Amino acid sequence: MSPVQADTGSSKSTSTSRIEVTDLAGRQVSVPLHVNRLLLGEGRMIYALSILEGHDPFARVAGWQGDFRGLDVQGYAAYHARFPEADQVPLVGGTSAETFSVEQALNVNPDLAIMALTGGHGPGPHSEAVKQLEAAGVPVIFVDFSQHPLRNTVPSIQLLGKAIGRTSEAAAFIDFYQQSLDQVREPLAKAREAGQLNTPSLFIDMLAGLQDCCGSPGEGNFGELIELAGGHNIGADKIPGAIGTLNPEFILSSDPDVYVATGVFGEGRGGVTLGYSATQAQAESSLRAIASRPPIGELTAVRAGRVHAMWHIFYDSPEHLIAVQALAKWLHPELFSTLDPEQTRKTLYQRFMPIPPTGVFTVSLPTTAP
Fold first, then answer.
1. What SS3 state is found at 159?
2. Domain containing 36 — which CATH number?
3. Which alpha helices (DSSP H) does the chain contain, by range?
4. Measured CA distances, 70 to 65, 97, 205 (Å)
5. Residue range 147-166: mean pLDDT, rounded
6. 301 part of a folded domain
7. Which intervals hold domain Fe/B12 periplasmic-binding (predicted)?
8. Which of 12, 29, 138, 344 has its CA 20 to 30 A from that of 267?
9. Dmax over Cα atoms in the chain, in whole Å?
10. How many angstroms separate the CA atoms of 237 and 255, rounded?
């Protein structure tokens, strides 16, 4: 089923103790009015949950999938430093949907399960696991921050806020989210209206150096962020879905104006070093190595120094608003000379997140003449 916006503005009471919502898979779901035990079908949903739960995001987490621990090691370490009880949250699976255990999920006795629409690291909308959870009396709702982030982030936050009783917190974040995106939308609209806007092409090399060349967003995911930021995603020319691969020959023939890699691990783990424990020097040196590998080093963008990188988890988090601002600066440096994505990130964390904004999440190499 195609993702649709959640009908969160007028949920109706089905009884004195339950409410009815429409999730991002278009499913009508009856959820408890007071949720005390949450099951996270992807561990990285802790980022979105943190925005709504304030200073204690683990207060209601009864169990979670293992992707946060296993694949986002810097993020997990940052949370663990502030919340050591993260180690005690029961795992209900590993880092893939196939490892999700319905038996372990039911053992944590959840009031509500939250799943990702894409079903990449946990069960998807049509999975047998979801059917079994619902048959056992566990309501399941689907959210989406990855497949179509610009379309679905606001309704997903609204849905979560209503389901867990955090509607005012959801409204506050949505206001901040829209204002942050408007800092990009409005200057671009004025420049476009004045006939002064070009559309540079861009290649996002997802998990660069950590997999065969080359992962890329297509029609969705980071691709939507590139379009909002005033660029053309070359991956959309070949990939019909949200994420896919591009062959080196196509990348070379497209010769994009700007090159962006994504990274997630710490120093020594390969790829671009970005995240909560990364330093500027580590980020720059690792990006330089990644951008010089064949065939990427042959691109005009790399030879000219139009080389950047950003945190890979932006692809699946409401924090992608920071990525939009960074992309806008990289694509249109003169138009966005005063825009400060790092300050936006600091403000986001000060207002909504329970951990400090440590580390490096975007990085650029010095620009040289083409």
1. helix
2. 3.40.50.1980
3. 46-53, 67-71, 73-82, 102-107, 128-135, 149-163, 167-193, 222-228, 248-254, 280-292, 300-303, 320-331, 341-352
4. 10, 14, 22
5. 97
6. yes
7. 37-339
8. 344
9. 67
10. 13
